[in-house]
């Protein structure tokens, strides 16, 4: 009889959205606008908004809203929209497992142990920062080494300073933003070290967060050792050659009490892997089609869990696609007439999302991609077999900025099932 | 403060000894210079219960290793500490090394191991057990009684058991001087003067400094650094046994082993270091460790490392454990030089120290009638079934709030860790008791939440919460 009780206590929803950040909210809203009735968002933090809640700087919304908003402002526009609908929200709620037959298991303090039977699931769990363990840094395990995002939470949410003399390793956007933030709070940011010969962050952040404050950006430079037994007392930096090997003799001691790490983001796909969704080795996110449906029918993914974005505006757009895809799936139970071609990046194009596209799509499809190096005065070329479908000149392409090209319905008409759609960089 | 016994050092040896001696009706203090138990050697080692074929026959090490390994499963069960009897394999890569295995087998017999607890297996049998082992392997020595245990969890459990039986745990209580007057030791500590009739010196790396305080210079500890890499759980199944290489004149080689929590540990190096408190590790050395480990298991990749760490081993210049009453003062017992296989030996060491204590004790020892050999079993949400979880949260909803996403640790477990008989006082203490912060993100998400809970439960401002006590501050003043 125990089994029967369990079935009765299982809730039923048309759509379960895992994660209430910008991705989850946009996806849920889009699904609602397309007629999905019973939707629930499960969010592990205390509030909706995700990481935006701690991003109090401006620069959000330029593409989507055409104005410059802070992170919380951007989030709150969506929170208000969610509140105006009958989308249910459970915060402080952690999804601990999902199953192939789309049963979502979660826990929280109010409801205890929850199981939800979902017609469709949208994965919107976001990403996490790469920790120190993955890096080649010798030395002690002293206090004072943390990720830039963790420091951002201490400063912006908790209101405490995690350090006074700071070195930042990695010129990802969070690192750049934190260089400015810590300076404004009275800390001395000595430098930002970047292993690569170029920054991984947005150009506007390098100008506004480093140049404007006279903070040096040391390229081809890394931290090789942390000193201090209890609290960090300093670090050793060194120059690296083009193979990223340390150049002997360039080692230099820098006195500091804090080392912030901004060395990359990793999509949080533990749940996706649990149910055996096909993953892309480069993005570390699921393989999806143009509606952001994963290899598991009825399970969609969007936002930073799918691919790490630089701009939340793009997260919103991508998530709306997933929300629409889920709505269509819930209404029709998947598209039977779909015929897929596959996307592939070569010649400097590291990856493309989506990885497969329905050539019978009646809407144009945008392919998002990143390059693996800095290119100046080059062309982006889209081709199938010998036929070039599209070419676009680009002044500058950089790994830190996500690019996109559009496949029009006309172009899709030229592609056959199982074709490889190649996106390549051609230097001029 | 007056005690019958002062035990100096709350590592695995001090804590298990405190537990053993808490069977008697005596007033015992367990003194620790750090902010927690298991803060040095006991928190950073291989976590392996060696079977006992390795130690030189006739040494105290050899005897206590074999005895300790036999006791370990039961001690762990009683203390609710995970122990896995996965066995170990010494892998040979040449016919010559096969001969070494033969010698190791014989040495095991000499040391007192049961003949049927060891077996020399051929290549086929080895590959059936370990499909990922290098194709260059030709055979192995299987030791069925070897196992793995979490060294700090064992220490914490032993200290909690001791505390439950009346032992007082005094943290941040480093001993700076010892006088002996009127048949009583007077210990100057960071927490003031403490008197004790007997002292047990389990000070690990600093055991020689402590024994010198009574004028005994027979102990000479050298610190040997061992560097390790801990790999993600996603590669957890790469080996099923503790994989050793054949010992050569250069040393024991590098081991690859599962941990009780499902990670893989690779290491260690052996570097003699001057500073007994510095566990600074060198990346270059870790790369060499991987190179060596790949000889046994070629598919290992440094890319799966989630953290690396160093641990210092207390090596006595005699290369044996130094256990016994001091020749300078018969009421002072040294338990020093406890390097590998110290963890495996630890339950036997505690028994042995108790025997030494009984032999020197002035008077009649009475056993407690209400001695409890166990401790309260900690809640481990991540290991529960869904039904157990449902029930648990219904009883106490703090177990419904997940704090550490990577390791699925709940607020309730963190509260338990802080309020246990030997509770966590800092972020690392919570981590060792609950695994919060030990996963892939290495506390990126939960670090600040753990600090909030510590601050709330201990009723101290959040910027006074440290990483591991002392000056390991995390936060400074408030923002503008």
Describe the overall structure:
The complex is a heterodimer of chains A (428) and B (480). Chain A is of the alpha/beta class and 428 residues long. Chain A has three domains: 12-128 and 266-334, FAD/NAD(P)-binding domain (3-Layer(bba) Sandwich); 131-263, FAD/NAD(P)-binding domain (3-Layer(bba) Sandwich), CATH 3.50.50; 342-427, Immunoglobulin-like (Sandwich). Helices cover 22% and strands 35% of the residues of chain A. Chain A has helices at residues 2-9, 22-33, 71-83, 148-158, 173-184, 203-210, 270-274, 312-332, 409-413, and strands at residues 11-18, 39-42, 58-60, 69-70, 88-90, 94-98, 103-108, 112-123, 127-129, 138-139, 145-147, 165-169, 188-194, 217-219, 221-227, 234-239, 252-255, 258-261, 265-267, 299-301, 340-346, 349-353, 356-358, 365-371, 375-384, 387-397, 403-407, 420-427. In chain A, strand 12 (165-169), helix 5 and strand 13 (188-194) form a beta-alpha-beta unit. In chain A, helix 2 (22-33) packs across helix 8 (312-332). The longest helix of chain A is centred in the C-terminal third of the chain and has 21 residues, at 312-332. The radius of gyration of chain A is 23 Å and the shape is globular. By secondary structure, chain B is an alpha+beta fold. Chain B folds into three domains: 2-42 and 152-220 and 318-360, FAD/NAD(P)-binding domain, CATH 3.50.50; 84-147 and 222-316, D-Amino Acid Oxidase, Chain A, domain 2, CATH 3.30.9; 381-464, Arc Repressor Mutant, subunit A (Orthogonal Bundle), CATH 1.10.10. In chain B, strands 1, 2, 9, 10, 11, 12, 19 and 20 form an eight-stranded mixed sheet that branches. At the A-B interface, strand 7, strand 10, helix 4 and strand 15 of A face strand 18 and helix 9 of B.
